[in-house]
Design a protein that fits this description.
2 copies of one chain form a homodimer.
Chain A lengths: L15 H8 L3 H8 L7 H14 L5 H7 L5 E6 L4 H14 L5 E6 L10 H9 L6 E5 L12 E4 L9 E5 L1 H14 L5 E5 L5 H16 L9 E3 L4 H13 L6 E4 L2 H13 L9 E6 L12 E4 L2 H16 L7 E4 L2 E3 L14
Parallel strand pairs in A: 1-2, 1-3, 3-4, 4-5, 5-11, 6-7, 6-8, 8-9, 9-10
Antiparallel strand pairs in A: 10-12
The structure holds a DNA duplex (16 and 16 nucleotides).
Chain lengths: 346, 346
DNA sequence: CTGTTAGCGCATTCAT
DNA sequence: ATGAATGCGCTAACAG
């Protein structure tokens, strides 16, 4: 680390002032050159351009965004980077490629502060300035007073104020449970997700509906809270599966929860799928790496991300958009489900 | 959410000035309250705090970072969000959890501008302002004149100026080729990666070394450029596999390339692994979802990310760090490799 | 064509 | 304990 004296820009970043000084022009002139604005003599332009290249100057995103409204950056706000978000991110990245927008993904929950207001906080911190628009993943609160276009993926409540993109959670859940029913299961448990997310509520609703349609009364003791999280789900599964009349199948609200259930089953010496069938939801890439590979309801995650981008770009263009997009889910049968064990069949 | 009348903040974001006005104090006072600085009467503090909550005010990351040096945000600079980066991101996210730092991932290449200087550009745009430190994924140029601490993952050249984290690329490549040799293969092709990345060079070196150690001269026609990309690799594989004395096995420089090879093989009617063995590198989650599941060299991706965070945090604390961390790789044998077909054995 | 003047939202002296 | 003034890096109006 060299200490620079004088105006050596080696430490600290090169600012527009450094360029102006080196080129012997004023700051606004440099600004004009950088932004390809006309009203600059060709000769001056060339000289400034050269100095810019020499010094390796880049406009500060921050300073620029403070001044001008447009930044050409779209923000993706996620609670944290886990498989679900990162798959969406892939779809978003692909869809945003070549649109002229750059992507800025912000994880607002890493601080460990479990306040549910992370999305509002993050949005406030970035909007109005840094980003032109935002895609918010699994927001749990209303994002009403935002000054920039916002698209929500898998939000708190369904179609409310703002534009949303999600999958057919209820139908997907129903297909999962129907799959288990078709295999002869009747004692089917449900490890449900975060109660503050519409997706979790809808999946539970689908679960209940499917059982009702089959003429089975839901045993409330078989419905437990997993919070969409592996550890929490493993814990509830441990108690659930240790009980005398344990279920023969578990429908977990998402893949992380399913992995937790798988873990608990292994600890209790239960074989999957011989002793216990498990179904997840999402079909994150990791779902095929579990032992055994997980049967799950696939959401088209990358497509969800792509759609969100498309909607946001439309909104940024000032054109009208459909307020809500819902994509279909598909049951992906792998090896964590099998016919109900004969000794527990009734 | 009721609209507070008086100073209607409904449009645009709530600024510190709005809070000051509503609380009947000056801006600096609000600033002090927000930053828990002393020199404010308890009563004033309370009142301001209350207004802040009511209005839902959050300091603008942009404005703050422009003024003060520390932002509490770490930047992750990636060319784009694909499986490799997103896996690293997961590891980084996990490791950063609870450290008090928030994460900001920036994809600098989405514009489609294929200029290799994306990492310098992005770094310049964000550093000195938005972020306190950065983790740069697969930088292809030197990041010398940065004013903030930087850790590079899988960089251009090995240990040069700055701190780096990578895996044992050469050893991993050797183990992959040795695996193929053990299965009886002798005509082993290599689809190599981006020439501007040390990892690609090292994997090729490992490939050559393993063959040499086995007393096999490298047939240069079997070494093609795949650029770490699926499409490009599929293309070179198509020509490679259509030739009369085609190889019986391909070692692809990464999993994306391997997927491309798999695709080309399928198009040509070649069965994997019966007619052709394929090995990849990285072990991204998607590798187990290919048909057949891909044999590959696993890099501990999430751990690479975690280590990078640890190093960066150490640097941010001003403490000395080891300049270079290298992690081991593991061969993960799945179903895309088999003994060499008898009819082509020589 | 160019430079001067403002001010974006905030944090920091330094007065009061 | 509080507020007026200043500046971070940059761009938008204007004036020369």
């Amino acid at each position: 680390m060299e200490t620079a004296f004088g105006s050596q820009p080696s430490v600290g970043r090169v600012t527009i002032a450094d360029v102006a000084r080196a080129a012997g022009v004023s700051i606004p002139t440099v600004s004009k050159v950088i932004n390809n604005r006309d009203g600059v003599a060709a000769a001056t332009m060339l000289r400034v351009q050269q100095v810019v290249d020499e010094l390796g100057y880049e406009t500060s995103l921050v300073a620029r965004s403070l001044r001008s409204s447009r930044t050409g950056v779209v923000g993706i706000l996620v609670p944290e980077f886990e498989p679900f978000s990162t798959e969406l991110l892939r779809g978003i990245s692909r869809a945003a490629s070549g649109t002229g927008y750059e992507l800025l993904a912000y994880a607002g929950l890493v601080t460990g502060a479990d306040q549910p207001g992370w999305e509002r906080r993050s949005l406030s911190r970035l909007s109005g300035t840094l980003i032109d628009g935002a895609i918010v993943v699994t927001p749990t609160t209303a994002l009403s007073s935002s000054s920039i276009p916002v698209v929500a993926i898998d939000p708190h409540t369904g179609p409310e104020g703002h534009a949303t993109v999600d999958a057919d959670n209820e139908g997907g859940a129903r297909s999962a449970v129907e799959h288990l029913l078709a295999l002869g299961h009747t004692r089917i448990a449900h490890v449900h997700g975060r109660a503050d997310l519409a997706s979790a509520q809808l999946r539970e609703a689908g679960y209940r509906q499917a059982l009702r349609d089959a003429g089975i009364t839901v045993d409330e003791r078989l419905v437990r809270a997993g919070g969409y999280q592996e550890d929490q789900s493993a814990e509830v599964a441990r108690t659930l599966l240790a009980e005398p009349d344990r279920p023969t199948a578990v429908f977990a609200a998402n893949d992380s929860s399913a992995v937790g259930v798988l873990r608990a089953a292994a600890e209790l010496g239960l074989r999957v799928p011989e002793d216990l069938s498990v179904v997840g939801f999402d079909d994150v890439p990791q779902a095929s790496m579990t032992t055994p590979p997980l049967t799950t309801v696939a959401q088209p995650l990358t497509e969800l991300g792509g759609r969100a981008v498309a909607m946001l770009l439309t909104m940024l263009r000032g054109e009208p958009t459909s307020a809500h997009v819902r994509l279909a889910t598909t049951l992906r049968v792998r090896q964590s489900t099998a016919v109900v064990p004969t000794d527990t069949r009734r």
